[in-house]
Write a sequence for this structure.
């Protein structure tokens, strides 16, 4: 039903993004673009609600066991958290720029900014996994029943770690999905799929990446900074 | 059903379309044939269906899937009812323990354990695999684009994906059953679901299944919201939309906004089981009531995911089958949105017993609010019927039945929402009867109404009216016998989710069981009628009931691209007084004689 084809129709030598015809059931390219954007916004709403559940659990247990939470957050290195915050902010900037690049038809810059965003995402995951999760887990600061850190002073510290790993883990999964999507964008950009007349996917993934970023902006102070 | 090889279906193409529609107007003759036309041989057709992005086929695939689940859940329900035939107080495992014939029980506890599993699986299958996707994903998928004059939903691939995700989730749930099942109740309350060591893998699988199904529901909802916003055909403003579309739209909003919460809840529950994170498990310092809040924050809105589309069907069937403009169009449309909004504020009424008094009072008051938009709808439907020329076919019979059963369901919600009576009735058969009157008496009855109303349109075949009506009476009588008795049982103190009971309740339990068997026979008859229709039914007319909504402007079954011409809306969906319906014998649905409207006063 959709008319996405990679091989030019006979005689049509225009670039892909100009040749691009919207799916049959849309009246125009603009209609399709609006629909995609609206759909992505709804998806973002679901993401916010998903994390709302985690924030809610955080609030409840912070109230129930303030000691455990204060102790727990002391174990987090705010510098690593801050580094990740900066990295994500930077990547939000580059992905926003890449949308602009697509609109302007600057394919070289588009590819550069997408690649840069992927690198930022990867850096985020490395810091999270290698410098935060790994040493903590090996020290026994694991969630729930796997908690074996000998110097805990509050009996409810495992709950803190449970919430910490759930919240950051679900977030990191989102980062990972984002990396995959942006890599896909990069490949398509490389094939010349995007340009001023067609950049739906860049816009959509860009919006998604922003929400991943915004959620981190909330997680960072709640987990690392408040004691 | 999906691989009909019948040449008649192809011949049906263009049947009854407005003159000149079938030649020349469409550039692409290939898309001018019925969506049911087989694509080559058997396997080619199967492949075509498995990879289709056509909303009609996906709707039919959903229909098959949910009906299969309904069958599974229904069989489990019969097991429950048969087990409850005798009180089972002394002779467990010997006589009367019905389940004991299949599974050997050595003790009372073991028999109860099996019962709990059967009951849990019945509830979980019916709620998550049948009723939540039922009307929106099957009939909604099929008719939403047709009714707004679109060629498809906004994101057809996402639509297909959501069907596969549904199947994937169902596989998780069914494998949990095959591994021995779970006994937590469909609500998965902690600590049943977190602390009990048995069934570890089953619970994880089951809860993951629900998590996965959530994605399917979100994608369907998201697709429908965007479709309604962006794909209405020229001339169709918001208030020209059929009320079914309004209902599906309101439902879709709830699907998008509520489902993520069950997503995170089930995910946390899985982590609770796998890692013992201690959020919900009281042994580890967690809060089981928090789980209940999380669960009902989704699962109350979900009851409106179930009922709103049902109300949409009723709002279609009533005006068309009584040939009257719907009374209070805007009131019905807005009450759908009001219900969707209030739905998010009342979850606390499921845990009155676990709340402080102030919170309980607040939730009780908010719950009463829901009754207002609900009643607005019921009164508008009844006003529409007033002085209409009612045609008592199966669809209409079911709709009239809905008005009774759903009203009973809604009205019995009020004593449950009242704090003093709730403490008496909570967790008794009264609650069981209440939600069966709303979910079965509401959603399932409306689904049956919609299926009969749209059957010819969907499959291009008429069904046999007389046997279908007999089926209706069996279902209606069976249903009321099954569940009216349960109100009385509940008031007398019969607790829910028990395999045995005191002998005083036996008579009512037996009436209920007899009712359930009658009910099942009604469904069997409906199944036969539908199968007969597919195999040997006469060809359906394109506009059998004289409807004015857009789905009646295309052929029966619709062509692949839905319409021969892009439709243009020139009248409201229910203007029966002013417009002759398309593609039907004008004599059959004569306009009302204008002078009769204002008879001279004697
Ligand atoms: C006027 C409208 C309604 C009101 C005031 C109402 C009120 C209530 C209340 C207060 C309860 C809690 C009873 C208890 O556990 O103590 C309840 C339970 C329930 N209601 Fe309703 N309800 C209404 C409509 C509906 C509808 C339309 C549906 C479904 C389509 C529905 C499905 C359920 C279910 C499934 C439960 C019990 C779930 C469980 O505990 O397993 N209700 N209702
Ligand atoms: Cu409720």
């Amino acid at each position: 039903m959709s008319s996405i084809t990679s091989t030019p129709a006979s005689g049509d030598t225009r670039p892909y993004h100009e040749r691009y015809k919207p799916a049959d059931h849309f009246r125009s390219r603009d209609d399709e673009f609006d629909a995609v954007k609206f759909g992505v916004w709804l998806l973002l709403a679901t993401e916010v609600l998903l994390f709302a559940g985690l924030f809610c659990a955080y609030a409840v247990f912070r109230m129930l066991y303030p000691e455990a939470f204060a102790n727990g957050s002391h174990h987090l290195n705010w510098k690593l958290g801050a580094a990740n915050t900066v990295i994500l902010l930077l990547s939000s900037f580059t992905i926003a720029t890449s949308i602009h690049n697509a609109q302007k038809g600057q394919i070289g810059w588009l590819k550069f900014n997408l690649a840069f965003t992927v690198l930022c995402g990867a850096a985020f995951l490395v810091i999270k996994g290698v410098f935060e999760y790994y040493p903590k887990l090996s020290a026994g600061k694991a969630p729930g029943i796997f908690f074996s850190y000998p110097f805990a002073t509050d009996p409810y510290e495992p709950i803190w770690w449970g919430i910490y790993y759930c919240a950051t883990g679900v977030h990191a999964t989102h980062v990972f999905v984002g990396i995959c999507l942006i890599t896909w964008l990069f490949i398509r950009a490389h094939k010349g799929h995007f340009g001023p007349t067609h950049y739906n996917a860049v816009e959509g993934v860009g919006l998604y990446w922003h929400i991943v970023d915004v959620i981190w902006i909330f997680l960072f102070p709640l987990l690392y900074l408040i004691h | 059903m999906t691989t009909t090889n019948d040449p008649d279906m192809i011949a049906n193409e263009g049947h009854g379309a407005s003159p000149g529609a079938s030649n020349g107007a469409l550039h692409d003759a290939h898309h001018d044939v019925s969506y049911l036309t087989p694509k080559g041989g058997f396997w080619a057709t199967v492949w075509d269906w498995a990879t289709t992005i056509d909303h009609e086929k996906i709707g039919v695939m959903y229909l098959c899937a949910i009906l299969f689940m309904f069958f599974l859940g229904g069989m489990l329900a019969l097991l429950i009812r048969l087990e409850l035939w005798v009180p089972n107080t002394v002779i467990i495992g010997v006589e009367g323990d019905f389940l004991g014939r299949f599974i050997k029980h050595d003790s009372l506890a073991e028999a109860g354990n099996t019962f709990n599993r059967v009951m849990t699986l019945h509830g979980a299958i019916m709620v998550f695999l049948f009723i939540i996707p039922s009307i929106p994903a099957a009939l909604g998928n099929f008719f939403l684009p047709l009714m707004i004059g679109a060629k498809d939903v906004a994101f057809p691939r996402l639509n297909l994906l959501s069907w596969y995700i549904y199947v994937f989730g169902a596989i998780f749930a069914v494998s949990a059953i095959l591994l021995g099942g779970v006994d937590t109740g469909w609500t998965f309350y902690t600590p049943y679901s977190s602390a009990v060591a048995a069934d570890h893998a089953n619970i994880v699988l089951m809860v993951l299944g629900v998590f996965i199904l959530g994605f399917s529901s979100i994608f369907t909802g998201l697709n429908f919201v965007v479709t309604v916003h962006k794909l209405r055909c020229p001339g169709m403003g918001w208030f020209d939309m059929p009320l079914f579309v309004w209902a599906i739209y309101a439902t879709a909003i709830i699907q998008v906004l509520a489902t993520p919460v069950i997503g995170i809840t089930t995910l946390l529950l899985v982590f609770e089981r796998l890692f013992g994170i201690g959020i919900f498990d009281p042994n580890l310092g967690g809060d089981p009531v928090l789980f209940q809040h999380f669960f009902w924050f989704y699962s109350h809105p979900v009851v409106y995911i179930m009922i709103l589309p049902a109300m949409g069907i009723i709002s279609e069937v009533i005006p068309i089958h009584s040939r009257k403009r719907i009374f209070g169009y805007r009131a019905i449309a807005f009450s759908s949105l009001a219900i969707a909004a209030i739905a998010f504020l009342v979850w606390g009424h499921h845990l009155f017993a676990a709340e402080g008094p102030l919170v309980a009072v607040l939730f009780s008051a908010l719950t009463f609010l829901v009754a207002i938009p609900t009643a607005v709808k019921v009164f508008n439907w009844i006003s529409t019927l007033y002085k209409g020329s009612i045609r008592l076919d199966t669809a209409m019979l079911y709709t009239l039945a809905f008005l009774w059963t759903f009203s009973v369901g809604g009205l019995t919600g009020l004593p449950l929402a009242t704090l003093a009576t709730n403490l008496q009735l909570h967790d008794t058969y009264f609650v069981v009867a209440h939600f069966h009157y709303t979910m079965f008496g509401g959603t399932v009855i409306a689904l049956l109404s919609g299926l009969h109303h749209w059957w010819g349109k969907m499959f291009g075949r008429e069904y046999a009216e007389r046997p279908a009506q007999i089926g209706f009476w069996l279902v209606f009588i069976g249903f009321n016998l099954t569940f009216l008795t349960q109100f009385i049982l509940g008031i007398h103190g019969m607790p829910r989710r028990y395999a045995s009971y005191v002998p005083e309740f036996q008579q009512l339990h037996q009436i209920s069981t007899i009712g359930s068997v009658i009910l099942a026979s009604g469904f069997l008859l409906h199944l036969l009628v539908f199968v007969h229709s597919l195999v040997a039914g006469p060809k359906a007319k394109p506009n059998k009931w004289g409807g004015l909504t857009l789905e009646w402007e295309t052929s029966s079954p619709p062509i692949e691209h839905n319409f021969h011409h892009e439709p243009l809306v020139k009248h409201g969906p229910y203007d029966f007084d002013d417009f002759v319906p398309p593609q039907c014998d004008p004599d059959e649905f004569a306009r009302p004689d204008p002078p009769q409207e204002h008879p001279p006063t004697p």
